[in-house]
Design brief:
This is Nucleoside 2-deoxyribosyltransferase. By secondary structure, the protein is an alpha/beta fold. It has nine helices and five strands, in the order αααααβαβαβαββα. Strands 2-1-3-4-5 form a five-stranded parallel beta sheet. The longest helix has 61 residues. The chain is elongated and about 100 Å long.
Amino acid sequence: MELKDMLLITVAITTIALSIVTILINFINQNKKLKYDHEKSLVKFDDMRNYYESKLYEINNKLYADPTRWKETNHLVLSGNENTLDTENIQNAIVSPSNFLLNHGLTKKDLEVDTRSVFVLTSFMDSERPLYLEIKNICSSVGLNCSRSDEEYINGDVLPHILKKIAKARLIIVNLDGRNPNVYYELGIAHALDKPTILISKSINNAPFDLKSKNIIIYKDFNELNTKLNMELTRTIINS
């Protein structure tokens, strides 16, 4: 083979190799761009979801600021919450097992009540975090340990984790504001497990007198919440 032919073959191979490398680089860059655009769209979607959740939360609070509408909307919750703070419930040392709990992986150990544990059912929106921290501080002041479900990272289904927290808790505190569907579902579970439950709400104006007998705390600010919740928690401890 002549030198000229060898040079032509070398040039051809080099050209093909460069073309392949160029195609690969373009492919990688395109994939990076697609991945970046996808991640960017996810962030944008998450921001939009948070925005609309926040607006929906505000609308719900405005709608249920009227005491009559609030009572009509929450009548099942209020009815189910009557007498949950009786002495027998508070003194329960273990939750009765059920197929529902066992099928979600709860063991006998998981059903043993921690007498210092308080579990809070609440929305995880940033606007609700100050309230949760206030509840946590109030619980701490009377020797109780307060938690909510997002304080531990759970890989996979979170329901078994929530069930364990509810079962372990001596007392459940529920933030009704915003009408978060997960909160109401978890409250139903707490009632089914005969858990002592305290409801709290700031979204109602001029609370009717008869709400005072249903283990619900209506508050205007954190000072009022501190006073009322502290008294309720202290009463719970004394009863047990």
